[in-house]
Amino acid sequence: MTEKIIQMLRDRGCKITPQRRAIIQVLASFDKFPTAQEILDHIHQKDPDVGLDTVYRNLNLLISMGVINQISVPGKDLKVFELAHDKHHHHLVCLGCGEANCLNYCPIDDSEIQKSAGPGFKIVGHSLEIYGYCPKCRAAAR
C-alpha cells in the first residue's frame, strides 16, 4: 500500500522526501490511528534528527493531497491520523479515551447534501465523525 501512495504523490508532482516516506510507512504499520507524537516516536527509532514540526508540516501536506485523513477528538485537543483508504468511510470517536474506529460505510445521501447546500455550491467531498462513548468508557463511568 505504501508504494501505491508514494506513486500517487509522484504522479501529483510531490517530491518524496525521507520524512514523507517514513510518515507513510509508520501510518501503514499502525493498527489504530496514531497521534503526531506517536508517529514521531516511531520515526525516531531510525532517525532521531526528525522534529515534531517536520512531522506536522508533512502531515498537513499529505492531508491537503488527500493521502492522509485527520480525525479530531473534541475536548482533548487531540488529532489522530490514518492513511486514506480507497473506500470512502467515516469514524466513530470516543469522547472518553479518544479511540477512533472506522464506520465502513457512508450513511450520508449525497443528493440530500447537495439539496441542502443549494445549486450554487459544488460539493467535492465530505467527512463525518460520530462522537460518543465506547463500552470501556461507559463501564468506567458507572
UniProtKB/TrEMBL annotation:
Protein origin, superkingdom: Bacteria
Positions annotated to bind Fe cation: H88, H126
Keyword hit for Endoplasmic reticulum: no
Binding site for Zn(2+): C94, C97, C134, C137
SUPFAM superfamilies: Winged helix' DNA-binding domain (SSF46785)
Pfam hit, one: FUR
Cofactor(s) recorded in Swiss-Prot or TrEMBL: Mn(2+); Fe(2+); Zn(2+)
GO MF, one annotated term: zinc ion binding
Cofactor binding summary note: Binds 1 Mn(2+) or Fe(2+) ion per subunit. Binds 1 zinc ion per subunit.
UniProt keyword annotations, A-Z: DNA-binding, Iron, Metal-binding, Repressor, Transcription, Transcription regulation, Zinc
GO biological-process terms attached to the record: negative regulation of DNA-templated transcription; regulation of secondary metabolite biosynthetic process
InterPro entries for the chain: FUR, Fur_C, WH-like_DNA-bd_sf, WH_DNA-bd_sf
Family: Belongs to the Fur family.
PANTHER family named in the record: FERRIC UPTAKE REGULATION PROTEIN (PTHR33202:SF7), ZINC UPTAKE REGULATION PROTEIN (PTHR33202)
Protein name: Ferric-uptake regulator
